[in-house]
Structure formats: structure tokens, C-alpha cells
Design a protein that fits this description.
Helix content: 40-55%
Number of strands: 6
Largest sheet: 6 strands, antiparallel
Shape: elongated
Oligomer: single chain
Radius of gyration: 25 Å
Number of helices: 10
Strand content: 5-15%
């Protein structure tokens, strides 16, 4: 997925002016073209100018203050939004219908949905994903692009690293979702939107739980009963807490509160299954999971 051609043209119009301004301040390339029509810019020169522009924000702030290329108010506002850029190393993980997923190497890791420019991002890579790269991610309105340069490394990854990347990606999907905007205002959600987003992530956890139950020797009806119990817990206890929370943020107090009003062994059994699933798959801290499991197991003995 990439920007529309007119949006890509807008970006490169702005970006050429930035590189030309940076060159006028740094004198990196004595033959830098006056206009895009006068000649191309080698990737090596573009990378040096890009790095100089982002280096310490001095040139960036001066560009915004002086507007040396005469950008419109709208285009200058777009450049101003680039203060929210994300710079670092990423794994270009996979291409989806709406964007390409970039997985950061930070702790904790985050996943970003990034749009291509002239080409789809996967078409610019030396290898099929995952690919390790340096990149600068930029806001483009309420979407994310990159600054036209991907320093991708020609490295193949074995099954172990690929498995770890997929596990990290799965964890991000279930805990926070994929980031599709870098603008701060897009991350201020109403309680209603928060609950909607958390519900969507809970469904991913419940789907994985259902899949895990499918591996056990139990009827589909019993499995659905367990899933329904945990789904009810998520909707009635966690989503209506302040602030609303997802299934991977459950606490012992949440479990106690929910089970206190339930009778019979079935809810207890469902929680035992669910807590085992969470700890065995590394979705929650092992010691916390074992503590909650011990409480639920003792409850079952009392019935």
C-alpha cells in the first residue's frame, strides 16, 4: 500500500526543497541540482543530507522559522508535524492490505503501519520480509510514511529469530495494536473508543484461547463455554474498570471480584484453563499467572 500519486508528488516537492536547503547550509554536494528536473540525487548524497537535517534539529527548526523554499501554510504545517517522527532500526515484518508493518527494535517494541511512496515498500526491499532496516517514520496527515530512504540490510533470518519476531508482533497486536498515526491528538481516545479498541484486541486473545482449547480432548460445546465465560469477564469486569483494561491486564483482584458472584465449578474451571493458557504462552508474567491460578485452584477445592 502506498500514497496516492498526487500525495507522493507533494511529499517529494517538499522533501527536495529540504535537501536543497540542507545542502546550502552544509555544502555536502557542490553539484546539487537547482530543481528536480536538473538531475537526480544519488542515494548516498540524499542519505548524508537527510542525516544532517535530522541530526540535532537545528536545521529543522531553522527551516520551519525561515521557510526558505516558500512552502504553503499547509505544507509548512506538514513539515512542522515531523517533530513527531520516529527514528531508529526496524524489522519490516509483513505487508498487509492497508500498510506495511514496521516492528521497532525498542524495548518495549511497537508496530507501525507505514505507507510506501512511489512503490509499495516490499518492492523496494532486497529480500522478502522480515528485513532489518534503518528508517525515519514521518506523519503524513493521519497516516505514516518514511522519508524516502530505507537503509535495508541484506540479511536472512533463521526460524528462531522469525519465531521471536512473530511472537513480539502477536503480543503487540493483543496489547496495544498497530500504530497508524504519529500525531498526539490521534492517541487521545474517548472511553467509548478505548473500549472498542480493547474489545478488538480481546477478540484476538479469545481466538487464540479457543484455538488452544481445540488442541485438548474436549467437545466444541465445552470449549465455547470456557470462551464465553472469559468473554463475559472481559466485558463486565475489565472493560468497565477505570481506565478500561484488556484481558492481558487482568489482576488477581479482577478474578476474585468476578468469581465471587459466580456459583458452581464451571466458571472456576474456565479460569483455570484460561490462566494456564496465558502463562504457558507467555502472555502474562509467569509468577503472577501462577499466583492467580493457585487462587482459582483453591476455590475449586472448596466447591
Amino acid at each position: 500500500m502506498r500514497l496516492a500519486p498526487q500525495e507522493t508528488a507533494r511529499f517529494y516537492h517538499i522533501w527536495f526543497g529540504i535537501l536543497r536547503y540542507t545542502n546550502s547550509q552544509t555544502h555536502i554536494d557542490p553539484n546539487f541540482p537547482a530543481t528536480p528536473r536538473d538531475g537526480g540525487i544519488s542515494p548516498a548524497i540524499a542519505a548524508q543530507l537527510r542525516d544532517a537535517f535530522w541530526a540535532d534539529d537545528i536545521l529543522y527548526k531553522q527551516f520551519l522559522a525561515d521557510n526558505p523554499t516558500g512552502l504553503s501554510e499547509e505544507d509548512l504545517a506538514l513539515v512542522a508535524s515531523w517533530q513527531y517522527r520516529v527514528t531508529g532500526t526496524f524489522y519490516v515484518l509483513r505487508s498487509l492490505q492497508k500498510y506495511t508493518v514496521f516492528l521497532s527494535t525498542t524495548t518495549p517494541a511497537h508496530a507501525y503501519g507505514v505507507l510506501g511512496l512511489v512503490s509499495d515498500i516490499e518492492d523496494t526491499l532486497p529480500l522478502p520480509p522480515p528485513v532489518y532496516t534503518n528508517a525515519v517514520l514521518l506523519p503524513f496527515g493521519h497516516r505514516i510514511i518514511y522519508d524516502g530512504l530505507l537503509n535495508a540490510y541484506n540479511i536472512s533470518f533463521g526460524s528462531g529469530i522469525r519465531g521471536n519476531l512473530q511472537e513480539t508482533y502477536r503480543n503487540i497486536q493483543e496489547r496495544e495494536g498497530i500504530i497508524t498515526s504519529l500525531l498526539p491528538e490521534d492517541h487521545i481516545a474517548t472511553p467509548e473508543q478505548q473500549r472498542k479498541d480493547i474489545s478488538a484486541r480481546n477478540q484476538k486473545v479469545l481466538t487464540a484461547f479457543r484455538r488452544e482449547l481445540g488442541k485438548a480432548n474436549m467437545s466444541s460445546q465445552t470449549a465455547e463455554t470456557h470462551v464465553a465465560t472469559i468473554s463475559d469477564f472481559a466485558s463486565t469486569t475489565l472493560l468497565h474498570s477505570e481506565p478500561p483494561r484488556g484481558l492481558l491486564d487482568l489482576t488477581l483482584a479482577d478474578v476474585q471480584s468476578y468469581l465471587h458472584g459466580k456459583s458452581g465449578k464451571q466458571p472456576v474451571t474456565s479460569f483455570k484453563r484460561f490462566l494456564r493458557f496465558l502463562t504457558n504462552t507467555g502472555r502474562i508474567d509467569y509468577s503472577e499467572g501462577e499466583n492467580m491460578y493457585g487462587y482459582v485452584k483453591d476455590m475449586g477445592k472448596g466447591d
